[in-house]
Amino acid sequence: AQPPHPSGPKRANPPQRLLCSSLMEFGGGVPQTGPEHGLGRWLGPHFPLNRGRPLIYSRNKRGGRWLVSLAKQQRHSELDRLWLETLLCLIGESFEEHSREVCGAVINIRTKGDKIAVWTREAENQEGVLHIGRVYKERLGLSTKIVIGYQAHADTATKSNSLAKNKFVV
């Protein structure tokens, strides 16, 4: 069952979501027809792992997120690829001994640009957070010139404008 959304009740007819408990189930459920069909329709905007819950729950209030921002021009060329790679990182526990620190991922599609975030459990675990960020950036195939930032949930909850301060960058 999905948790209630913080901004209101669940929609009467939520879109069909792919639920999986293994990499085999995941691979069998994702359409193999290409990015033009939009993975978001199959996977939904949230991909929580069983070991964590998103920011809206007090259990993760000490955590944070690695945030990848995309210009709207990148939506058709990069968004599906980056979202799929993000999910594969989570399912495959790509972050080695720090994989237990990862709570899930979210994708936000907005008019001005899109965002993909990987949630972590403990923002003060600098070693773990930086390891996750470095591995995540490498797995996404991002250039060394591109910087991704890590924001603590406490900082994003109290921000006064649209940009929260990055606690770490890679």
TrEMBL record:
InterPro entries: TIF_eIF4e-like, TIF_eIF_4E
Keywords, comma-separated and alphabetical: Initiation factor, Protein biosynthesis, RNA-binding
GO molecular function, one term: translation initiation factor activity
SUPFAM superfamilies from the UniProt entry: eIF4e-like
Pfam family, one: IF4E
Entry keyword RNA-binding: yes
Family: Belongs to the eukaryotic initiation factor 4E family.
UniProt name for this protein: Eukaryotic translation initiation factor 4E family member 1B
Lineage: Eukaryota, Metazoa, Chordata, Craniata, Vertebrata
